[in-house]
Write a structure and sequence with these properties.
The chain is mostly helical. About 75% of the residues lie in helices and about 5% in strands. It has helices at about 25-35, 70-85, 90-100, 100-115, 120-125, 135-145, 150-205, 210-225, 230-245, 250-260, 265-285, 290-300, 305-320, 325-330, 335-350, 350-405, and strands at about 5-10, 15-20, 40-45. The protein has a 3-stranded antiparallel sheet with strand order 2-1-3.
Length: about 400
């Protein structure tokens, strides 16, 4: 059955766009008119075969990374132009010309050309899964089928902005500790490589017995100065092996489980994932995506394999006819409060609203957890710096005191 793209006005004069299947244009016009719509334009959509390459052939100066913020801006602009009544193809063309990211500009032009040739927007962007993920694609498909693409695009923007906001808060919380650690390691490396060896030479000329802290620091300085390439190579090899181990299923599962077991970090990671899980599931469910399909899409957006395995078991139970809350209650990763609210939502038929409430609750907890993490890290950094400075000072001053005794 052919598909038709239509534009119409409702009783209030609002523009309505969408795609529907019909035997003919006349039948579609009758159906839309019966729904209280005044049809403006109808165009048959022909399926076209798109190139299977993930990106068009681009010159080297086009190799610019497409960030999540670029996709957010593109999606918001598209939703705004559709709300203003601009035709879909015209909106894509204008956005493609105004996009600053040259790589994304080329992709938008390819998508625009495919839509002009009769492809659905969802089919056109499906050729770029590394830019438009499964969640984005599924929601666009729902928007096209329901004729509410503008509303769905705004929901996508809301999800992506919250994700970006969470990432920004995490980066902000970790910036200070990372800078302090780098400075501390840099200072220690400079002292042990260039400064401390000169003092050691003076101490050895006097013939005094070096105290234990000084000998340990001298040994560390010698190892760093003479075998720096060995240590550097060992670090790179360890990182490479860890990366290879993470690519195996057992390796990823083991490291993800270890991350969840870490104090402070594990709890924060769990809350971030649960907030994303409930927010995305609520958006998909309220957009009309079936619960099984929603769970499958949500799984692909979760970075922790431990929780992915749990969600797969829950999805299997739901497929067998069980409610969502019951299998969730069997896993400790889902707090009782969250399970209770979902159960109430299932009983009252307001599961999407309950999922949104849970999501907001966990997003608030994430903010507090990030503040607590920063508060807990600061005294640890002070102790860390104090130990390093104290040990270095002790290593230098103890032999100096012995030298002063010998002079006296």
């Amino acid at each position: 059955m052919p598909k038709f793209y239509y534009r119409a006005r409702d009783a209030q004069g609002n523009l309505v766009e969408g795609t529907k299947e019909a035997v003919s244009e006349d039948q579609l016009v009758k159906g839309l008119s019966g729904s209280g719509l005044f049809v403006l334009d109808i165009e048959e959509k022909r399926e076209v075969s798109l190139p299977k390459v993930p990106l068009p052939a681009l010159p080297l100066n086009f190799l610019q990374k497409i960030k999540a913020r670029d996709i957010i801006v593109f999606t918001r602009q598209l939703a705004t132009m559709l709300h203003a009544g601009v035709a879909f193809i015209d909106a894509l063309s204008v956005i493609g010309e105004q996009t600053e990211n040259r790589r994304l500009k080329a992709v938008i032009k390819e998508v625009t050309q495919a839509v002009k040739e009769g492809a659905l927007f969802s089919k056109a962007i499906s050729k770029y899964p590394h830019i438009f993920n499964q969640l984005y694609l599924s929601m666009v498909e729902v928007g096209e089928a329901s004729g509410a693409l503008e509303e769905v695009l705004n929901r996508i923007v809301s999800i992506m902005e919250r994700d970006e906001d969470t990432r920004a808060k995490i980066k902000s919380a970790l910036t200070y500790p990372v800078i302090i650690v780098i400075i501390a390691l840099g200072v220690v490396g400079f002292l042990t490589t260039f400064v401390f060896p000169k003092f050691i030479a003076i101490f050895q000329q006097t013939g005094i017995n070096l105290p234990l802290p000084t000998r340990l620091l001298f040994l560390f300085s010698s190892l760093v100065k003479k075998l720096w390439f060995v240590w550097l190579g060992a670090i790179f090899i360890a990182l490479y092996l860890l990366k290879r181990y993470r690519k195996t299923e057992i390796g990823r599962y083991t490291t993800d489980k270890f991350m969840l077991s870490l104090p402070l970090i594990g709890n924060l990671t769990r809350k971030i994932i649960l907030a994303r899980f409930t927010r995305t599931l609520a958006t998909l469910y309220s957009s009309g995506v079936p619960i099984l399909k929603s769970l499958e899409i949500v799984e692909r957006g979760i970075p922790n394999l431990v929780l992915i395995k749990i969600l797969q078991k829950i999805r299997d139970d739901v497929r067998e006819g069980k409610s969502l809350a019951k299998p969730m209650s069997q896993h400790k990763e889902f707090p009782p409060m969250m399970v209770q609210m979902i159960a109430v939502g299932e009983e009252t038929g307001s599961i999407a609203d309950m999922l949104n409430e849970v999501s907001r609750s966990y997003e608030t907890e994430v903010e507090y957890a990030l503040k607590n993490l920063t508060t807990a890290i600061e005294p640890l950094l002070i102790v860390f710096m104090g130990v390093i400075v104290g040990f270095t000072a002790l290593s230098l001053f103890l032999p100096m005191f012995d030298m002063m005794k010998m002079v006296k």
